[in-house]
């Protein structure tokens, strides 16, 4: 489903280019659950952004369902994200001026796959029933992250990329959110790649890889 | 559609921000399009006047010395085969209004000399030629006429203040049988004898109202400059509102991109959103602009009449093209104001975090760079003012001065804050100053708008005040006689003079005749030799013995307008009549009179112009009681109301006309200041929402919300006071450029500059008042802020 080959990424700084990813290669199959661990600044988020086509690399290749992601135009990459790749962020990234219901339906509407019944079912499963008309600022952190997960899954993505999704939550809430995400992703048959610095959370994934100084270590 | 819905949802959740944006843009558009509506109305009036006169239709033949043309000259030219048409112009007093009567010959006049549509209002064209004839006037201006007056027909094609009629009717109304000029039909038959062999009349390109249009152009440029200034001040609000909205929504843009919205679609949606808001606000602005224009137009019409003698309709017509232009300028202004935000969005990395606070707090380096550009512009402005010499240079200098001062302002305030820091010892005081420095970039756009409004206010009020003071002083000289009487006829005038002569110190008959000097209408006055003139008449330039020269008929006096218009200097010879040419002995100031004027001795006037009007007289009453004299004249002579005036009422009328002249400038001044006050309010409200992270820690350290709110208020007033201090020299420089360059070019008068400290102090009071109102709302909000809101700053939930 997703093949990454010899991926190179540098950031330009005042002291010259700093390599972040140095020849990273990785494969993700359908239904895989993969934890991407590493210290802060190890390049986890950068790798996820590249997988989602949000950023460009200096070298290497990313193939997603047969398409060379890095060679696609901005519009084509956006189309891939809209319909086949879902993203969950640490900061939730909900639209503050839309209600819970509107946020949940947003990505599905953009993908042209809006199904009100599916949204209603998911709202129940996420424990958000009764909160549909609230705005994000009126929700707790855990509730906000559940809306973000729901927004991603309601569009039926083939691959879910999650960047420290519990980083802003307390341990108990984080565990509950993780369990729910695992459960829902598994139900849809999508693959899940999550970046985390928590070894404990990574234990729940079928595969784990570790990034250190831009190099991948398989565990 | 989900993208647009998402973008619009921001405005639904932030109605105050939307209201600020819409109101700012609507006000900016209103002032701009209001001024444009006024200008357009005036231009339409000039165009109608020009078309009534047949200007632009071809050349004219005029008498080289400006005198009237005998009908015989016209007849001889027609007989020689030349296609010429006679025109008779003159003034007629009717129902208390002076009308400009234009008589044309419809049978020989070139196409277009009679405005299209004039006859469409009546099927009775022959009545135009017959007796008692027809006169056409502009709608809503038909005078109450005596029974034997020609029938009055209203027509849109006629300019206000004009009466168009057949030449025969004009001759009867003006009691004259000479012509003003002959219009040459553009296409003449072949083989005609040269004009120079037939007549000594001179060919002249169409002038008349075109000259008027050139003169009034400068006034309209003034209005446009004011409209543009207000528009620019309004755009500061738009720029700030859109910039903040973009920065606040950066996370939303990032989210939308992350969930699959292509960049091009996002930019298109944002452009659509901004344009839609501009159209809504622009429509409101155009409506408001129409209301403002309709309210100001009568004053503008008065101003143009008083300054230039131009006749403008006092009623505003709605023109769709004007409305569309207003909308276009609103959209264009919004695009320009949001260009920086779009540029940031395009150039900033997609994954960069949003920084609405950082957005409002530019780097110190940017402030320094901006101040540098401002200083350069001020130097350019000073250099341009030094060069002077044309209206364009004057306005360029003004533009560089205002923009330069505005750019320099934030840098100067930073320096003031650094100086203020030195003596401060208390921790709270240090925090307030440090916090103010951090707050300043967010406020700088509003402060720049306020500076522009204050400087414009100081500049224009200094100009108008100086003008008024000079005008009042000039009136004291010109209206030195205590009593002015206009008799019904010359017999009555003689009787009144004989009656009053034994009771007063001096009798000063005022005789005048209309003539043409250098081809343009002018008035010649005849005066007696009297100490009153020698002591009081306001002379600007003079030979050593001007009054002796005038008394012995070896010189004449001319007004400043005639001197500037015809480039006349002392000693230059002026032809008043084919039989009378005299050198200039002095030039006198004559504020408020748009026309040329000359003075000669009364005897010479009577000899040269036998049909002079001698019904007016002035009387120096000496020790006599003015009111008693007035009553005795009224008891003895049959004088209509208004024909006998004392000095005080004459001055009051003159000053009232003067004040009306500048009422429109005052109104625009107030509106610009109001827009600037609103810009300040909008900025303070915006900043109040973003400043919690600064305020919360100091509150947690033991300062009450009441003290913090008080500090906010005092700080705003302090910054506004500093802005006023900086605006003062800028405004005075503005006044100097207006008086020394712009006014000389626009009006033909050079005035001394006077300072009005009380007015400037009052302006500071208004600025403080509007700032208190603007700052009170955010301060009150801070005072009532629930502690829970402040505590959120310390949690991750914000």
The share of residues in extended strands of chain A comes to: 25-35%
Q: What is the helix content of chain B?
A: 55-70%
- In CATH, the architecture of chain A is 3-Layer(aba) Sandwich
SSE pattern of chain A, N- to C-terminal: EEEHEEHEHHHEHEHEE
Strand content of chain B: 5-15%
Mean pLDDT of chain A: 87
| Biggest interface pair, counts | A-B, 34 and 27 residues
Distance between the termini of chain A: 21 Å
Low-confidence stretches of chain B: 207-211
Number of domains in the coordinates of chain A? Answer: 1
Overall geometry of chain B comes to: elongated
> What integer value in Å does the Rg of chain A equal?
17 Å
Fourth CATH level, the homologous superfamily of chain A? P-loop containing nucleotide triphosphate hydrolases
Low-confidence stretches of chain A: none
Helix count of chain B, per DSSP?
26
Key traits:
heterodimer, A: 219 residues, alpha/beta, Rossmann fold, six-stranded mixed sheet, four-stranded antiparallel sheet, 7 helices, 34% helix, 29% strand, globular, B: 798 residues, alpha+beta, eight-stranded mixed sheet
